[in-house]
Give the backbone structure.
Amino acid sequence: MNLGKLFARVVNNWPAKVLSLALAIILYVFHSMSILETKYFYTPVIIENLNAMMPSSSYPQMIRVRLRGEAHNLQSIMENDIETYIDMSKFDVPGTYNVPVQWRKKGIALEVEPLQISVDPMEIAFSLDYKITKFVPITPSFMGQMEAGYNMTSFSLNPAQVIIEGPAAIMASISELNTELIDLSGRRSDFSVAAAILIHDPLIIIRGDAAAEFSGTVSQIIPVRNISNVPIIVTGLMEGFTGELEVKTGSIHLEGDNLEAVERFEPPPDFLRVDCSGITEEGIYILRVLAGTASGINLRVVPQEVTIEIKMLIDANEDENQ
């Protein structure tokens, strides 16, 4: 068969032959599509090229990825083989923008064909603001009560302040950060705990460790009480003498470990006294003020000494005879 006859046979009824070839290709494509399987998973969205800007409102953190391919290939593709990202390099002034979500293949996904990839959502609306960085102090927060009779006299935080960054509008309202609640229940000695630093807005970022070391100094409370206008009585005077105190009342300063004992103590009528048993003649004397005892309580008396004038009693019959 010569070339002329071959060519004539090929081009004979060519429209039908072209249509048949096209139909065969379409059927092949549809067949290939029909045997592909679908796989879904979520990947974190990466924000790239923010420069001096940052998001100032919430946005989807995870992107739904749809893969279509041959079953044995899809099984080998993991979530970290597809990366979703948003390129913010075109935006340098505050505002709200609709930005397309892009994707790129990594790892095993680079070698898989055929592989169809789509994402949901296809774009994200972003509100952008200028990124601000500043130092803020940390304030501890507490819960519970110390053991009775104990008090936290001082504390420290390390670090005492941290660097935070965030959108300008939100950062303007932040003057300090608080720790998580630190439990004081039943504590009676010095202690140290690690306390997380709380961030209530996910758009605010702490540079460095988001925890502080809290150290508390605990001291025992010494119950103290003052009782004033306690009578000072005169005792031990020899018969025939009388004594006149310059100061007739005193004060008692009480201290003790037992708060209830200190608060309930009431001095008896003869608790404060001066002893005149060693005086045998008239005169003015300075005597020590003596005090009774109180179980489990330390006490101090004010004044510690008083002036007393001692005189002899004059018998009325003796006066008449004179």
In short: The chain is about 15% helix and 50% strand. The CA atoms of residues 26 and 32 lie 10 Å apart.
